[in-house]
Amino acid sequence: MRGFRAAVVTFPGSNCDRDMAVAIEQVCGGTVHRVWHGDAELPAGLDFIALPGGFSYGDYLRSGAMAARSPIMRAVVDAANRGVTVLGVCNGFQVLTEAGLLPGALMRNAGIRFVCREVGLTVETSQSLFTAGYAAGQRVTFPVAHHDGNYFADAATLDRLEAEGRVAFRYAEPVNGSARDIAGVLNAQGNVLGMMPHPERRIEPAHGGTDGRALLKSVVGALVGA
After folding, report:
1. DSSP assignment, residue 199?
2. What is the pLDDT of residues 141-165, one digit of tens each?
3. 28, 37, 146, 200: which is the annotated catalytic residue?
4. Binning pLDDT at 50, 70 and 90, where does residue 224 land?
């Protein structure tokens, strides 16, 4: 079995990049490269790229809008289009939508309040490399911490996401006003996932639960096992 090679991108204002790197190392093993937003190239031979949570560029303009224009994102977009697996969490989800890798947009939370708490999620599909370790309909708990997590897309896009099984996670109860309580979506090819809740904060029992381990284990199992 070959080694697992991952990269975590850091933008100015990222604050979950180390958390993500440590989680990947603990669950997946292998090499985790730390990549700066100003780099023009990614390390060769990557299996997995993670865009972490935080407040890139201070959330100026729109959350994720400036980070999506960072030099490294050209390489991330190219890698995703080649089939490399990409996970964006919280601010990383915002960056993925702003970069055009996922449909829709993340707007201000309903009520214009920062939400920071644990939330229940329903796993909407087990037919993806990110969610194969869960059962469809399974209830899991992850933390959220965001001000701009209100997922929006037009009705036709939402219908297409539902019909194609591209809603990965749904809030078990309203959290931020997201359309149809969507918490995470996949791209059409299934190799890119964006989600607002933080699986990397549910890796060890000391975190209050281990529901996030299955997501990372699913990724490494699908990529290295293949």
Report:
1. G
2. 999 999 999 999 999 999 999 999 9
3. 200
4. confident
In the numeric block, which tokens belong to residue 101? 């890798």
CA-based nearest residue to 196, from 112, 87, 110? 87
Neighbours of 35 (CB within 10 A): 20
Q: Let me know if 90 is a catalytic residue.
A: yes
Q: How far apart are CA 226 and CA 212, in angstroms?
A: 22
Q: Which of 16, 37, 124, 198 is catalytic?
A: 198
β-sheet bridge partners, residue 121: 140, 171
Active site residue 200: yes
Task: Provide the token pair at 142.
Answer: 């992850």
Please give the Cα distance from 116 to 62 (Å, whole number). Answer: 20
Residue 96 CA: distances (Å) to CA of 41, 118, 186, 203, 218: 18, 23, 11, 23, 21
Task: Give the tens place of pLDDT for each residue, 185-223.
Answer: 999 999 999 999 999 999 999 999 999 999 999 999 888
Judge whether 198 counts as a catalytic residue: yes
- Phi, psi dihedral angles at 200 (to 5 degrees): -70, -10
Catalytic residue among 90, 98, 124, 146: 90
